[in-house]
Amino acid sequence: MATKLSEIRVPVSLQFTLSLVGLVVAAVSFVAGVSTAADFSEFLLTVGAGAVLAIGYAYAMVELFDASKPAMIVSALLGAAIGLSLGSVGGALFGVVFGMFAARIVFWVHYREYRAGLAPYLTSNQVLWYYGFRTICAAIFIFLITPILVVMPLSFNAENFFTFTPEMLRFDPEGYSLKHYRDFFTNNEWQRSFKNSLIIAPFATVISVSLGTLAAIGLSQSHVPGRRAIMAILISPMIVPLIISATGMFFFYSAIGNWMEATLGLPKGLVGYIKVILAHAVLGIPFVIITVTATLVGFDRSLTRAAANMGANPVTTFFRVQMPLILPGVISGGLFAFITSFDEVVVVLFVGSAAQKTLPWQMFTGLREQISPTILAVATILVGISIVLLTVVELLRRRSERLRGMSPG
Predict the structure, then answer these.
(1) pLDDT category, 274, cuts 50, 70, 90?
(2) Are 251 and 346 contained in the same domain?
(3) CB-CB contact of 358 with 197 (8 Å)
(4) Which of 151, 189, 200, 252 has its CA 20 to 30 A from that of 179?
(5) Is 327 a member of any domain?
(6) Which residue, 132, 167, 202, sits at the end of a domain?
């Protein structure tokens, strides 16, 4: 039996290992230098010092150790010592993790472990592209997720600051508190805005799902004239800048609101809620149309024809045959519509009034007028809700693919 490539511990040249490690750290130092250096000389010092230190560290690890485990232990202890010398328990923990990771990377490169699991016939350029592509994707992911990772721990700050306090960096329990969460659940302004969001978003979602599903089913019929033009118009709220849509909605729904108050005699508060709900429904309909249309791509039209041949009317056919199969797409579109309504702030500023102040509106007010750290707690709660909803969307997407036979069960 041929020996696996991963089991052949044939090291690359020391020059290659040192050059690659130095190049990677120089790239990281380049990013750090651009954001922190005061002048060009300090920038060059940051890049050069980072590369030199990395090369020296990699040389010491390779020369002193023959395996990664003892090197990782020593490197972790060294990182912990550096962190403690700076007077921070958090720095010591970071030093342990970073030290283990750095040592592992050095041996991963030096002993060609990066080729484990790859086809043996891949050229060096193909291996470089394989890891380069994944590095780019990871960098984009880190760039997108870092703001969220910063906000979440800050929501537990014991002080009324938007920055990490020394107690938090030392992982001192006194530096952490739930007082911002208590303020959110006990403050009348926050609770009123939260209730408004819970009132507006579900109603807007129901309208979006109802109209969007019907539109998607109608546009999926081949005999409908001008399908592409109609589709472009219906999804235009996703394309048109939101400030333009909000301005148009302000004039349109103001006239409708005046008519409902003068002709129908509806209370002004109820009319305000109706206007915001209808405006948010307009923003949510495109998401429903897109997700339901994607679900209908794999729908077997012979099922509806068979139901019609058995004597079922169109309504019965829809609810008994078509709806169960496209339900994952409908629910996915509804979740996107709900998130859109729940997180929207620009349109409600134009269309709504103080009585319809939603949670994002209250957060905007807190940043502009009060600088309330409770915003961090609210943001963390919204992130948690979004993660749950997106998880549900992904599960429904997979279920939809299984129902349509696009993936194994």
Answers:
(1) very high
(2) yes
(3) yes
(4) 200
(5) yes
(6) 167
Q: What is the pLDDT of residues 20-62, one digit of tens each?
A: 888 888 877 776 666 666 677 777 888 888 888 888 888 888 8
Q: Which of 301, 328, 305, 308 is nearest to 397 (CA)?
A: 328
Examine the domain organization and report whether 243 and 123 are in the same domain.
Answer: no
Q: What is the DSSP letter of 177?
A: -
Q: pTM value?
A: 0.71
341 part of a folded domain: yes
Q: Are residues 200 and 94 in the same domain?
A: no
DSSP, residue by residue, 28-52: HHHHHHHHH-SSHHHHHHHHHHHHH
Nearest Cα to Cα of residue 295 among 181, 219, 199: 219
What is the span of the domain harbouring residue 378? 187-403
> Per the domain annotation, does 222 fall within a domain?
yes
Query: What single letter denotes the amino acid at residue 174?
Result: E
pLDDT single digits (tens) 91-126: 778 888 888 988 888 888 888 888 887 888 888 888
Rounded to 5, what percent of the chain is helix, strand, coil?
80, 0, 20
- For residue 363, which of 374, 352, 351 has the smallest C-alpha distance? 374
pLDDT at 134 over 80: yes
Please check whether residue 211 lies inside any domain of the structure: yes
Q: Specify the length of the chain in residues.
A: 409
Amino acid (one-letter) located at 167:
E
